[in-house]
Amino acid sequence: MTSTAFQSAFKFTNDDLEANREGRLSVSQLQVWNALRAYNQQAAAQSSSKVIALFFVSVLIVFLAILTITGVLNQLIVLLGVLFVPAAAFAALLAALLIRAAVSAQRSSIATVAGMGDPDQTVPIVSSITG
Q1: First vs last Cα of the chain: how many Å apart?
Q2: What are 55-86's pLDDT values in tens digits?
Q3: Are 23 and 123 in contact (CB under 8 A)?
Q4: How far apart are CA 107 and CA 127, in angstroms?
Q5: Is the pTM of this model over 0.85?
Q6: Most confident of 56-60, 108-112, 121-125
Q7: What CA–CA distances, in Å, run from 106 to 48, 60, 74, 98, 126?
Q8: What phi, psi does 94 have (nearest 5°)?
Q9: What is the pLDDT of residue 121?
Q10: What is the DSSP string of the chain?
Q11: For 89-106, b where at least 16 C-beta lie within 10 A, e where not — what string?
């Protein structure tokens, strides 16, 4: 890929290419990087685990409603008999563990983004660009 094609494809300027050839980011690339990092940190600070939990609970309620409307839930009750209560408890436990895992993963991601540190200290490394 020629420099001109590269520049037009990725919206690079001559300054960007020269800085990248030297193994660093240009001023405009650093501005984009800092803006992206600031946005991610702001979004992480405003994020809430309640939305994730609410989503999973809503999906579970819709799933149970579909099972009830189609008659599958009644068939399960008849089929399992007295074992329906332990089976339902086990299914509820699995659903709770799934919700807990999703919330935990979301909190971990937020902590990672929030802990990105000072944008001026940590910038992506440009190995080399030839051509």
Answers
A1: 8
A2: 888 998 999 999 999 999 999 999 999 999 99
A3: no
A4: 32
A5: no
A6: 56-60
A7: 9, 19, 35, 12, 30
A8: -60, -40
A9: 53
A10: --HHHHHHHHT--HHHHHHHHTTS--HHHHHHHHHHHHHHHHHHHH--HHHHHHHHHHHHHHHHHHHHHHTHHHHHHHHHGGGHHHHHHHHHHHHHHHHHHHHHHHHHHHHHHHT---TTT----------
A11: eeeeeebeeebeeebeeb
- C-beta atoms surrounding 49 within 10 Å: 14
Question: Which pLDDT value is given to residue 114?
Answer: 67
Here the tokens at position 25 are: 């980011």
Indicate the domain borders of the chain: 1-46, 48-118
Q: Which pLDDT score, from 0 to 100, does residue 74 have? A: 93
Q: Which residue has the higher pLDDT, 78 or 4?
A: 78
